[in-house]
Write a structure and sequence with these properties.
7-stranded mixed sheet, mainly beta, 4-stranded antiparallel sheet, 118 residues
Length: 118
């Protein structure tokens, strides 16, 4: 099992920045990739970004490309999401997730609220 704990959410004005953290524990050697997803009120959960643990390759949703940066601290088993130039449309609960090789994301954190005021 892998446990994920997010932190770093909060309230920020439009144009501001926040950094989310996701600390992984447990069987972290089994992790293939970690990602960030978000769910706004009344909307489906959507993919934001992911990073592969093997080579640190990254992938972003078009809506955040150029504004958000996902990174990893190998020694701390922690993944970060640096969010810049935030807009009210970025308001959502942000979830961290992890997957094993060849599998869907099956480990999820509890979520952290990000609210961007106009």
């Amino acid at each position: 099992q892998v446990q994920l704990v997010e932190s770093g959410g909060g309230l920020v004005q439009a144009g501001g920045s926040l950094r989310l953290s996701c600390a992984a524990s447990g069987r972290t050697f089994s992790i293939y990739r970690m990602g960030w997803f978000r769910q706004a009120p009344g909307k489906e959960r959507e993919f934001v970004a992911r990073i592969k643990w093997s080579d640190d390759s990254t992938l972003y949703a078009d809506s955040v490309k150029g504004r958000f940066i996902i990174s990893r601290d190998n020694a701390k088993n922690t993944v970060y999401l640096q969010m810049n130039s935030l807009t009210p449309e970025d308001t959502a609960v942000y979830y961290c997730a992890a997957s094993r090789p060849g599998a869907n994301y099956s480990y999820w954190g509890q979520g952290t609220q990000v609210t961007v005021s106009a």
